[in-house]
Hints:
By secondary structure, the chain is mainly beta. It is built from ten helices and 47 strands.
Amino acid sequence: MPVRNTWNCFxxxxxxxxxxxxxxxxxxxxxxxxxxxxxxGTASGYNLPPKNILDVMHAPIPPQPLVSPTYDSILLITWQxxxxxxxxxxxxxxxxxxxVEPRNHxxxxxxxxxxxxxxxxxxxxxxVADSKQIRIALPAAACPGRPLWSADGKRFAFxxxxxxxxxxxxxxxxxxxxxxxxxxxxxxxxxxxxxWMPDQKTLLVKLxxxxxxxxxxxxxxxxxxxxQETDGEKGQSSTxxxxxxxxxxxxxDLFDYYAATQLAxxxxxxxxxxxxxxxxxxxxxxxxxDGQHILINAIHKPYSYVVTYERFPKxxxxxxxxxxxxxxxxxxxxxxxxxxxxxxxVPTGPRDFSWRATDPATLVYAEALDGGDWNVNVPARDKVxxxxxxxxxxxxxxxxxxxxxxxxxxxxxxxTAILTEYDNNRHWTKSFIVDVDDPQQKPRLLWDLSxxxxxxxxxxxxxxxxxxxxxxxxxxxxxxxxxxxxxSPDGDRxxxxxxxxxxxxxxxxxxxxxxxxxxxxxFTGPDTHTFxxxxxxPTDPPNAFTRKLGKPVDASEGEATFxxxxxxxxxxxxxxxxxxxxxxxLVKYKRADGLDLSFTxxxxxxxxEGTRVPTILYAYPLDYADASTAGQVTGSQETFTQLYExxxxxxxxxxxxxxxxxxxxxxxxxxxxxxxxxxxADAKAAVDEAVRQGVADPxxxxxxxxxxxxxxxANLVAHSDLFRAGVATSGSFNKTLTPFxxxxxxxxxxxxxxxxxxxxxxxxxxxxxxxxxxxxxxxDANPGTTxxxxxxxxxxxxxxxxxxxxxxxxxxxxxxxxxxxxxxxxYEMLRWFDKYVKDAPPRPVNGTQ
Length: 849
């Protein structure tokens, strides 16, 4: 749909942006004390969906496996699906991209700020040799995190979020007994709170310093104005780099208080705690393979009010901790504030530090040769540097990459490594086999393919952990092993391959059959003929299996060239047998321009083939640089069927067009020039096919999406008449509020005002006559989907006489976490679609609304 009076609209947009940001600036800088939600049952309380849906929501979810590095044990971890609103409503502070709970000094949010930190509810230890299972006795009211195995497989460590601190616990892999380390009060603000040292007997931890005293009190009167200044140099920052930024001097003081960390070594056997170094704002820690050196990143002032802590100034040092009471330090780099990094670019100066896994203490890092800017044309974008202990000599350049350096994957054999680089402009990646010790040996191209390529994706090298904890690619002679998802026209079929590094030919050892989804977990030891898998099917819960390779067989292309047999190792029961009555199928079809697309079609319990039922479409648009990969089938209909969010509407009698392919194809530098046309074409193709299948009632179809999918939903109800109603959750509806890019759009609003206006349903609110339910988390930390996006779209629709409902979920971030919030989400969606889709009157004959 063309934009009329573009420049006038743009000026209006600028005025609206100013008003919105003024509103945001008036909000409290630090989200501290908030009231708990009103209990359900009161006038403004939470609502519940029907009992059959509640029963499924309250059921436990299947566990996740964590295999020990020695392959003899598996930890089955069951995660909490929905914590209570009381847990989600715990007061927190917003500190430069991190949300911290003052109560116990814990991190409130997940990386990226899309949810809150969840707890495990159950650990079960499985011994592979005899299938013996031991239920681990966790402390009462525990909130443990993901365990961390020691490389020798003898112990595992985990954090526990207690009432007034974050605790360190250690478990025994034989007995399953766990115990707390007294006096270890962890500081997980920047993650990496615990990790095993190379001796596998000691943990390197981040502690809250003793004698901290109370946090800086909030001043009764302002200390002074909040001041920022720019000097004429471009200061663009990505949308995702200005989440929960600091706002004033008091915020800076709070950041320093909660970031302050004392490093320490904890003896796992004796529980002895040995502090090392001085207190500072330590962001990341990485022990060298020799166990004597530790790579340290420490954040320091001056801070910024426009970017998060990842861009703050840092000192990169290597500590020699051979004598913990007398540490020697080597400064590797002093990195300045990086608040002017080009969109989708990288900072200048050294970055991406890592240890070479096969050397005692050798650092590898990259430096940009293009100013960190993708738009600059240069022969090589990065140079890769190597710096050996004792770090007194200058670093040596070992190679240059044509595109951006990604990483080195080190093999067990020091002469073999895999170097990977990627091209964001083309959505492309290349990997090379290199010998960094022999500069005369030319790198050999291993893989050269689009990052959007699914069918030809070779998978990832299988690694193993050395005795010192370093991870290396497992190598047998000239062969390595690859494990991949195995996307195909029939859906995902995970595989295990053997790759000969000399001939670069692969041999398929195993491939999941077409009636289940079985993926490689790990080998069981030196013998690569026996391995562990994680198996599931639509009616079979995920469980661990032991699989053995047999004799070679004749096989068609892509199939396993060896016979194999399997035996179940675990026996996790079905938590929701009532869900098995739901059926699903992979549906393939074409867009009007001939592009191949697909979706998974779910039908409700008791569905009779040929019956037309109300239907909901769910999708999330993805950007592609090339049409050849945009229509590839990903995902599998052979997974164990689980219901959540919109899928729970199946129990309300709806069919679901799930994960419909919605490709947006074009040059990444101009990704959104044809966004609307492609969006509507994607939707029409999916709807037409669901109708052709005899399942969807063309007069009773709704649409829903989350985040970027919510933008899709609002645009489809504004620019098409395919749907009777929409539900948009946690969306971004006015892209002028993210003026320096969004998704893969790199141009600013000043470079492409037409594009920003066309993709923003806010500017077409007068066209939205199809009922739209808008839901949003009141504490959404994603800068692109701030809560004001939802409220302003609702006001715009209301002011133009449309039909809409706005539901703001208290305390929720980008993804809704609390049980009460998710119950409300399903209640609202079911109520909305029942009213405007299931019970909708027939459309007028002329098709108008």
